[in-house]
Amino acid sequence: MLIVSKLPAEQVQPASVLGFGLDPNTDYLEGIAPLDHDLQIIVNDRMETQIPYLFAAGDIRSGSPRQIATAVGDGAAAAVSVFRFLKEISSISPNP
After folding, report:
1. Is the backbone of residue 41 left (phi > 0), alpha (psi -120 to 50) or beta?
2. Which stretches of the chain are DSSP H helices?
3. N or C, which end of the chain has less CB nearby within 10 Å?
4. How far is CA 5 from CA 58, 73, 84, in A?
5. pTM
6. 50 closest CA partner among 70, 65, 36, 66
7. Quick one: pLDDT band at residue 57, thresholds 50, 70, 90?
8. Predicted confidence (pLDDT) at residue 55 exceeds the cutoff of 70
9. Which of 12-26, 30-44, 56-70 has the lowest mean pLDDT?
């Protein structure tokens, strides 16, 4: 899961992996992110949630077959989406 913020470039920190393992742990997201009946995060095909700046990929996303190859593909799709998102907001925001 990746959260992207509209902070100025000098305040943006490298993204971190919030967790990994065999079973998705989303208990802490109940009431914050949209979850399905299996407590997996609901995303679109660009790995975006309904929450602005929140992306999810891999076993944590709703509908995931929970396979390594799929998680890698999800991660690539999320990375492209985040890159496009950051490129879009940087072209909108004035650069210091």
Report:
1. beta
2. 68-92
3. C
4. 21, 23, 14
5. 0.70
6. 36
7. very high
8. yes
9. 12-26
Q: How many residues does the chain have?
A: 96
Report how far Cα 8 is from the mean position of its chain's Cα atoms.
Answer: 20
Which of 45, 29, 50 shows the shortest CA–CA distance to 81? 45
Furthest CA-CA distance within the chain: 45
Rounded to whole angstroms, how far apart are CA atoms 9 and 89? Answer: 11
Say which amino acid occupies 44: N
Distance CA 49, CA 68 (A): 21
